[in-house]
Amino acid sequence: MKKAALLAGLAAATLFGAKVLASDLFDRINAGRYQAILADCAACHTKPGGKPFAGGAPLQTPFGALVPSNITPDLETGIGSWTYADFRSAVKTGVGKDGKRLYPAMPYPAYATMKDSDVADLWAYFQKVEPVSNRVVSNQLPFPFNIRASLIGWNLLNFSPKEFQPDASKSAEWNRGAYLVNGAGHCGTCHTPKSLTGADKGDEFLRGGNLQSWFAPNITSDPHKGIGSWSSDDIVAYLKTGANRFDIASGPMAEAISHSTRLWDDADLTAVATYLKDVKGDGAPAPTPVAATDAAMTAGKAIYLDRCSACHISSGAGQPSLFPTLAKTPTVNGTDPTSLIRVVLEGSQAASTAAKPTTPAMPSFGWNLSDADVANVLTYVRNSWGNAAPPVTAGQVKDLRAALTR
């Protein structure tokens, strides 16, 4: 019905300077809509309760706040006056209209690998979204980071744009997964550690990254810190529904699933799973767990049995699709406990998808657990039931509590 309505209003149109048939234009717009879903454009460019793509909520970076811009085709405040060349340049090189340089919080280093045809489809789609007048001041960084000319140096150091090239030794499915993970999906933007300049550490690809007071876990095939014990079906289920037999998504990943991956084609989800199962971890052996007789473990066990075991079970097994297992999961065994601390302090809400519409929640314990209590219970969780990870300190909890309060 929507296609018929669009075709009825279009006999022919001009796109990229050439005449195209209305039927072809519809196909390009529809393909571009899917590219916008793959790239999760709405996650940054639509703020909660706001008009689609009219500008997002501030992103807190280590260098200050950046506000995602209005990318609707509004002439004055959006990209309505842009050409396709302007758009392509912004997406693939980080340089927009009139030479304005973009900050890499807009993941152009990943989008640079996208095929021009996919970027062209994305452009066709954004020409047809609702124009919204909403002027956004994107750059709210303090001096000297607010000087965009500094990005020339950043790009020289950290950015080598190159379109994705398939690996002939791998399957078509593997290559599709690699294309999505490294390109439109920009998984490394969150899941790869960053250098002092904010660039991805390429030699630690997908081994976990700290961003906006969350830790995106290791999603390599590492059997201890990563998702090596997950099957391809487990990965697909997690991305499609927000839950699998190991974990339930929360925080930014719950948002990514709700707005993006749950809408991906099943073939693309399977391709991503195939690729991720082949991404190697660092090869480091699992650490020795903290001894059960350690004072932090003893105190943590008492807190766990009192506050946590009703939902997560005394064995850490959890309840399928309701309360995540805490035994042998990447988030729990990761080197960085930031997300665990945050969830205990603030609570969390799971993703909502068509397949798993129930959104189980965890209450906040920040109001009635001290910094030492949180550290002890997490040290216990991270070193029980086959888990092994560095202990959490009261200082780590104190610092994150202060950051979240700010």
From TrEMBL:
Residues 12-130, 172-280, 295-385 form the Cytochrome c domain. The keyword Lipid metabolism does not apply. InterPro entries: Cyt_c-like_dom, Cyt_c-like_dom_sf, Cyt_C_IC, Cytochrome_c-type_DH, Membr-bd_ADH_cyt_c. Its main location: membrane. This is Cytochrome c. Binds 3 heme c groups covalently per subunit. Keywords: Cell membrane, Electron transport, Heme, Iron, Membrane, Metal-binding, Repeat, Respiratory chain, Signal, Transport. It comes from the Bacteria. The keyword Protease does not apply. GO terms for molecular function: electron transfer activity; heme binding; iron ion binding; oxidoreductase activity, acting on CH-OH group of donors. Heme c 1 binds at residues 41, 44-45. It comes from Bosea spartocytisi.
